[in-house]
């Protein structure tokens, strides 16, 4: 399952970047993944969640942004950016197409907390009354 | 707080791959990464090609497998230096494992290192291991639909070997379809029809020698 290998590397970069900015938590990660990588989003989510346990990235939302593959048709000259691999031209149906790009795997952005959020401070101090209210 | 990062996920692996290319350049060695699914005939291909390469090129092999040293033993019987890289369950070789393996070879006595990657049509294609060229192997017995199902491997190949062509009478393999699906993602990639007593073996040998000649100083990476 190549998602696990990719998620491991992704998590390492996320933690490294978050640490550089003195993060206490990573809220979300936006990752650009090319169509040609054939990454299964659900598997990537599961793998990332597993890899990030015990790290600053634990619980972070993973947003996967698709990098399209570029199709050029030699028959009609059409160009298209596709979110799914296609073997025929969407304009004329010819199979005289070439596919390029669409193989990115980039950590685009993070959203981090640099201090403990207010809603977590009460839990962190162990206020018993707040726990009862929530019960 | 939002932070723009824009870093390659595989940057750490790729940095080690670059270290490997520098190491190879210092020694004047060309490295070829041979990839393909389990059972496509990578080891058998090397068993046929190495005896014809070794009179002119000092060769060594890094064998990648999840477990056992069976493939390394086959290569060792040819008298070629070989190191078995066992991934202990990982489905591909990465740059670190290959770098470590290279340092177990007699690098001062080599011209060409061939890495036989783990049998897998998916993951090996994702990892730069410091190679100068990538050979994708697909056997006729695996089916003509594999290039369309596994585009990344074929899009990143420097050459493609269709293997087991000596068994073409027993395989329902639509060669034009497979060739079209390969060239759609890799327009100019050479495709060699290899197998026992197949002329494609000779053409592939020529390509390997030319690849070595072009990259033995470890400068530009093909493809």
| Average pLDDT number of chain A | 87
What's the overall geometry of chain A? elongated
- H/E series of chain A: HEHEEEEEHH
**Whole-Å distance between the termini of chain B?**
39 Å
For the largest sheet of chain A, list the strands in their spatial order: 2-1-6
Oligomer class: heterodimer
What does this protein look like?
The complex is a heterodimer of chains A (135) and B (223). With 135 residues, chain A is an alpha+beta fold. Chain A has four helices and six strands; from the N terminus they run αβαβββββαα. In chain A, the strands form two sheets. A three-stranded mixed β-sheet of chain A has the order 2-1-6, covered by helices on one side. In chain A, 30% of the residues are buried. Chain B has 223 residues and is of the alpha/beta class. Chain B has helices at residues 11-27, 42-53, 70-76, 95-102, 146-149, 151-155, 175-185, 199-215; strands at residues 2-8, 30-36, 59-65, 82-86, 112-116, 133-139, 159-163, 191-193. Chain B has a seven-stranded parallel β-sheet with strand order 4-3-5-2-6-7-8, with helices on both faces. In chain B, helix 1 runs parallel beside helix 4 (95-102).
Summarize this structure briefly.
Chain A is α+β, with helices and mostly antiparallel strands. Chain A contains four helices and six strands. Chain B has a seven-stranded parallel sheet, with helices on both faces.
């Amino acid at each position: 399952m190549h998602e696990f290998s990719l998620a491991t590397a992704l998590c390492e970069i996320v933690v490294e970047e978050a640490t550089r900015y003195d993060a206490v938590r990573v809220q979300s990660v936006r990752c650009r993944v090319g169509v040609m990588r054939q990454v299964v989003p659900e598997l990537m989510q599961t793998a990332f969640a597993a890899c990030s346990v015990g790290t600053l990235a634990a619980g972070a939302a993973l947003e996967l942004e698709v990098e399209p593959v570029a199709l050029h048709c030699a028959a009609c000259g059409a160009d298209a950016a596709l979110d799914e691999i296609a073997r025929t031209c969407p304009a004329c149906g010819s199979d005289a197409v070439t596919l390029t790009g669409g193989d990115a795997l980039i950590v685009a952005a993070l959203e981090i907390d640099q201090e403990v959020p207010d809603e977590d401070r009460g839990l962190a101090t162990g206020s018993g009354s707040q726990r009862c209210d929530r019960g | 707080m939002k932070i723009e990062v824009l870093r390659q996920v595989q940057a750490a692996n790729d940095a080690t791959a670059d270290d490997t290319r520098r190491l190879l350049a210092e020694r004047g060695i060309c490295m070829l990464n041979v990839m393909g699914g389990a059972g496509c005939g990578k080891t058998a291909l090397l068993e046929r090609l190495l005896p014809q390469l070794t009179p002119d090129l000092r060769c060594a092999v890094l064998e990648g497998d999840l477990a056992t040293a069976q493939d390394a033993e086959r290569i060792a019987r040819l008298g070629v230096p070989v190191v078995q890289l066992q991934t202990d369950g990982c489905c591909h070789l990465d740059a670190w494992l290959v770098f470590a393996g290279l340092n177990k070879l007699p690098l001062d006595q080599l011209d060409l290192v061939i890495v036989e990657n783990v049998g897998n049509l998916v993951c090996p294609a994702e990892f730069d291991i410091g190679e100068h060229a990538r050979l994708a192997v697909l056997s006729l017995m695996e089916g003509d639909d594999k290039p369309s199902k596994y585009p990344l491997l074929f899009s990143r190949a420097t050459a493609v070997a269709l293997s087991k062509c000596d068994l073409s009478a027993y395989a329902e393999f639509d060669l034009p379809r497979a060739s079209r699906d390969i060239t759609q993602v890799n327009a100019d990639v050479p495709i060699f029809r290899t197998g026992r007593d197949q002329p494609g073996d000779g053409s592939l040998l020529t390509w390997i020698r030319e690849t070595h000649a072009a990259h033995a100083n470890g400068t530009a990476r093909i493809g």
